[in-house]
Amino acid sequence: MGEDDFEEELRKNLSKEIKENFSDEISGDFSDEDEKKKHHRFSDRYQDDYDLVTDISGDDHGKPGRAGLGVLKLVITIGASAAIAIIVLVLLVVNGSYNSIFAQGVSAYDSENYDRALELFQKAQTKEEGKDSSDVSKYIADCYIKLGKQDEAIETYNNVLQANPNDTNAVVGLCAIYADKKDAESLNKMLDKYKGTEVEGYLGDFIVEMPKIEPEGGNYDVETTVTITGVENCPIFYTTDGSDPTTSSPAYTKPITLEEGVTVIKAMSVDNMGIKSYVNSQEYILEQLKPSDPVFSLDSGVYIDGQKLTITAQENARIYYSMNGRTPTRSSYRYYNPITLRTGSVTISAVVYDYNGNFSSVVTRDYTVVRNEEQLEQGQIDYEKYHERMESIRETETSSGTANE
What we know:
The chain has 405 residues and is an alpha+beta fold. The protein has 4 domains: 3-95, no CATH class; 101-202, Serine Threonine Protein Phosphatase 5, Tetratricopeptide repeat (Alpha Horseshoe), CATH 1.25.40; 212-290, Sandwich (Immunoglobulin-like), CATH 2.60.40.10; 295-399, Sandwich (Immunoglobulin-like), CATH 2.60.40.10. It has helices spanning 3-26, 35-57, 67-95, 98-110, 114-125, 134-146, 150-163, 168-181, 184-193, 376-399; strands spanning 212-214, 218-222, 225-229, 236-239, 256-257, 261-269, 280-290, 295-296, 301-304, 308-309, 311-312, 317-322, 333-334, 339-340, 344-354, 363-370. Strands 9-16-15-12-13 form a 5-stranded mixed β-sheet. Strand 15 and strand 16 (363-370) form a beta hairpin. Helix 6 packs parallel to helix 8 (168-181). The termini are far apart.
């Protein structure tokens, strides 16, 4: 409905009410008089009202019958003023609500008007909905940071954590400030505090990658060395006595050789700002050391007469061997020089002993030796038969429990 239609409808309703009231009021006085007298009586009784309306509306038409339009305008003026007052009141109430203040703060923040944004967010925090709002606190702290007031931002986040120690906005916000200030000590404390918690998943940007220790901890019975690798340009510090490493611990530069017994290696990386990784810990149990197995220069197979066979072992160890298929012991031949293979079939077994009496596994090779290249093809057939027979013998000895003396 347009403004003109609205005014017309009000005019009609008002005129109708006036006429009805007028008819009821004067009908008894003029029941026997004509309409002309009624009209004059109406003019006399309502002339003052008409004049008042005329003065207000400025609608001086000189006709009493137009008084309804003046009243209409007065009613519309009063009604419009009331409506405007109500709208203003509603807007004031809405604009003073938490949601409105918060929205205005966000708008000011996005417009980089951080002073105004801070004022609005602090006002929003006074509302019931904003007292414990993590979002409001984060915006307040962010405003402080934008305004170069890091100490105020830290205080804001710490106040949040007093109420909720696991508030992720506050934890991440504090870590970001400490990183920006290069406050490694405070940042390391935060990372240690939230290690293993749900909040840790939000701190990946601040955590230095933990170094890798290989091989994994466990039981070993052979000489074992441990290597530690980490992020490039991040030095690694380690300990071997089970204590947590610090920047005063030895710096890793080369593989670590384990000693017999229990060894606990712990290692951490440190970046150039001083931020520490989590500590990697591995426990090793090195049993009585077993020397490395002997190494043959020739695999099992067919060779021509005169071929040289060498056997090698680790330092500070002795090699003993047999050429009859039996398990070698310290009572067997001791290896000093290369062995010359002669025509026929032979099985050579070797074992390594260290100076502590520990011995390696026995290594065995089967050889068929021929006089010249023309006999190589036949020699291959002979080798296969011989190898199968020796394998059968060794399996029998293993199942019967033959042991090294």
